[in-house]
User: Fold these one by one.
Assistant:
Number 1:
Amino acid sequence: MRIYFCSDIHASRKCWKKFLNSWKFYEADTIIVGGDITGKFVVPIVETRPGDYTATFMGVQRKVNSPKALEALKVMIADSGQYDFITTPDEYRTYQGDQAKIDTLFRRLVVERAQEWMAEADMKLRGTGVRCFVSGANDDFFEIDDVIASSEVIEDPNGKVIELEGGFELLGMGYGNPTPWACPRDIPEDALAGRIDAAAKGVHDLSRAIFSLHVPPLGSGLDIAPKLDDYLRPRVGSDGLEMIPVGSTATRDAIIKYKPIIGLHGHIHESKGIKQLEGVTIANPGSEYGEGILDGLLVDVDPHKGLQRVELVVG
């Protein structure tokens, strides 16, 4: 069985489309997004007068004045993992200073794109026989779980154990340890450990278990991220950015305790790699979603020979 695994695509239209085609390109039986499927920013596109639009995107003011140019701008925004919002100057002013209204708009746009993605997955994967797994992770609102559940073809392994081909089992966990941003699924380490332990009780054969735990193990080398100051800005020292391990003790303890055949992780975009943790292969494909680059892992497992291949790929 060949698995294609990626994570942290954060609403990038281009990355999602690549993911849905990954099974063909890599000849995979199973494809997985290990969480964080939603984006972080809204880009207002203001119609200053009929047919003329302006938006500030990636720090650049962009003006378009044709339907074709407007659509190209919207695609550019979506490919980067952001959400466009077409509005008027009067409507735009009603959002200024009204955080509750902004939050409501953001949640609506997040859910709408996720719904579009599920419909696209159903259309492209229906009848192919490919197993597709997608779950929300620490950055994703809980409403996303219901959207994923609406899909005909996508399965959500979050907090579950799902049987795969050849007697292998997939355990998923999208919750993570606390971050400075207080994300929706950030929970204390002991609570995360409890959730992993509860799910692990459903595993029949740990030697064939594949653990998709969103946050990498603490100190594993897959969890190195910039150290932040009190204003959540990366700290810069004499040698450049200060980097520190920010992974999870609960994930680390679970890998050591249960010794799955492999640990698949995400969360830390800067720390792609394949490592060993007390004899267990663990891997993080990293993420470059903002550039529309899909970082992934190929994992080959055999019912008789076990783990045969783990390889970083970029598409």
Number 2:
Amino acid sequence: MRRVYLDHSATTPVDPRVVEAMLPYLTGKFGNASSVHLFGQEARAAADGARRQVAALIGARANEIIFTSGGTEANNLAIRGVCELAEPRHIITSSIEHPSVRGTLESLEKRGWVVTRLPVYDDGIIRLEDVRSALRSDTVLISVMMANNEIGTIQPIKEIGALVKEERQRGRRHLWFHTDAVQAAGRIAIEVEHLGCDLLTLSAHKIYAPKGSGALFLRRGVRLTPQQVGGHQERERRAGTESIANIVAFGTAAELAQREMPARNEHTRRLRDRFENAVKASIDDLAFNGDHKRRLPHLSNISFRFIEGEGLLIHLDMQGVAVSTGSACSSGTLEPSPVIRALGRDEELARGAIRFSFGKDNTDEDIDYVLEVLPRAVESLRALSPLSRQTIAAS
């Protein structure tokens, strides 16, 4: 049976070139980067090199990069770190953030913080005027993801950054702007100076590096409270012995992503568009979720009416095709995706949503195979649906 992986928004396979770069730091170059001897100096030099590579991916300075264990930790560090320097005040976010942001904000609400969650419209994008209207005199943080992990829509980050700058010029010196760029980095060009963000989250395993490494961009001059203490690592902003092999892998993946981004995007966009056009022509009663133009080049989210997304996922998996019903960090829940519901979709369409996310190593033969098994899977599941049978009989 052919196996086709279309879940690159959940994680990506590790690039062989990344493996080659990190292997020496799993064997002979095993030093602790905090040690002063040659082994330690070797590790420190490797971490510093990787820091420059990651910084270059987003147009930052190397000393503005804090390595973490992943995107979730980086989001926690950004949000808690900034907010815990002040008494409970006000935060603005969107209604479709990643669970690691949603969960962090919910925990702060229990401690007295007030959170305004801005709606997205049927295109999955927030409006700048809503951000402006939500600002209060006690607003400390705006946290809006750069690109959504389920539907791929790209938010007006540059415009929000300009708004924050405008507010600072009016005297609001302690208003900070954070964006979760885990899905966007390596897929769209990022220049933190142009965006105007103060904190930005990254994750290695979304760009063909291993799981277990992430980073937080922290603009110079922005203070935060460390969430892990007990060591001087990462300029005393994140304690703990650095995972040098993973950091080296992250740096290599970041450099490759920056260099190969145009070719990767052209490839995945072509596969995605071909896939969507064929699905539209072969399957009825479906809806494409999110803005059709302002989205990441590798992602397609489709709702199939009259079926459960989980059932379709399992059916496709049995045919060797890996897809997702939404965020991998929300798997296991029986509730329909809050992201799809936020678009105004009814519960049936929300429950029938499937995310197809394409990668640099997918082929036209992969797409041919999926287009062969997907219509059959949908037809088979709809044949078992009482609602589908009633609709057909009524027509």
Number 3:
Amino acid sequence: MPTTVAIPNAVKGRAATSGRPLRVLVVEDERKVAEALRLGLQGEGYDVVVENSGEAAFFRLTTDRFDLILLDLRLPGRDGIEILSAVRRRGLQTPVVVLTARDTLEDRVVGLDAGADDYVVKPFAFAELLARIRAVARRGRPAEAERLTVDTLAIDCATHRVTRAGKTVELTVKEFDLLLHLTRHARQVVSRDTLAREVWQETARSTTLDNVIDVHVSRLRRKVDADQPVRLIHTIRGVGFVLREAGNP
């Protein structure tokens, strides 16, 4: 299926934070798509670098620094999942938005397990991609000086550091956003509708989105509650999710 990216009239300078534009690596082997993305993102104020092969992208990621990565999965040389897994093993925490024509739940789970922060299916609207980029790039913005605690869970919003019982919990950008929302609404049941709107910036729910939310909650629960005597993240069947300590209804 041919991939198309519709580039609207850009609003200049949206990407600029702290006096400099966000630096984005676009990894896309379809050169027309890559060029459309480059022009569109530059029009929005981003500093864009493009690589068209897996090998070139991997070399670039090991020798250069970026604020965000747009990563196609089907690449010559090395595929996107292989690249993503390799750079995550090396400790690279740069947010990654996967671009792919693969739209099954299994494919999404594979991408998330490899370390992706979000998943955009081709063909996509450029406005949607921009919204996803802004969401995952929040980690690079000046964070509010806020510290949240529930039981032994602590979130430092200034550094995006999460600990449980004093041990660091490594989260993706989307997992952090999800946990932050649940923690800010601790002891309140948060519906899937709310998570779709507030965390995923989607105006309408779908079965696919519900599945993605469930996968993220399950992954977050394993990371936050693993080997802990008290579970904090609970599913309220048919309603949503709640983060609360033991002894609270």
